[in-house]
Amino acid sequence: MKLNKYQLADFSKSLIKVIAVTVFGLLSVKSTVAQISIAPTQVFIHDKQGAGEIFLTNTSDVPQEISFEMTFGYPASTENGRISMVYNDSLKRDQHGLDEHVRLFPSRVVIPPRWSQTVRIQILSMADKPDGVYWTRLMVSSSPVTPDVGDRNADGITTDIEYVLEQNIPLFYRHGKNSTGIEVVDVEKIYDNSSKKLVVTPEIERTGNSPYLGTMYASLFDKSGSKLDQKEIPAYFYYLDWRRLTFEQIDASKGPFRLDLEFKTHRKSISSKDIVKADDQSYSTQILLD
To answer: What is the set of domains in the chain, with CATH numbers?
Structure first.
């Protein structure tokens, strides 16, 4: 269809107006962030019970749509102390993954504002699996429910960016007889004489058929036996891993030093009935500074 010069002029004005309104809408973006709280923040299920549950609470003023996904993963650190999640270990997933054995009821849900929802977690039979602890990460995705077209503001063109918020929590399943422990394989050290900073990195290997969850206590002593510093950090060892310890204001002339490590399967954030128990373990080594 061809337009004459008058129609073309009117069309151009309309087009410019639409573009202007659209740009204004983009500049005045309203973002909506999903707000869902999860409890507990880690789930332990025993084979004698076979089921568990989580509680989701919509703390926002709009309905939230919730979906779930299972992804095998575990935390690991490097020698430089950086801790990150490992999600691409297919070999470990085949050995210890729980993904395909989890069923959720409901598997998708819309939670009204200021409302809570219980989600049941069922573990399918794992009778053919070796004894041990299996796990996955329960990914919980939430986003505001999109209003119907008739409910949208018709006065102008607006742009709403709705973010999908993803949270994940560990889900453990204790199957059969469980055992765990640790072995200190090696200890590396780096000392900076100018800053008097001593960085000690124990290399630790988990033993048994279950992740080690507990607490590590580290104490540093000088050559006279005086304690220079002590640290208490969460100990979670799924496989071979490292833990970086930094001690400040260490005078090299007071060496050689002694590092004592103690490991206990106790954690304030985890119920004692859920932790796989192990005897307290200790390790001591001498640290020489060149």
So the answer is: 30-148+157-175 (2.60.40.10), 180-287 (2.60.40.2550)
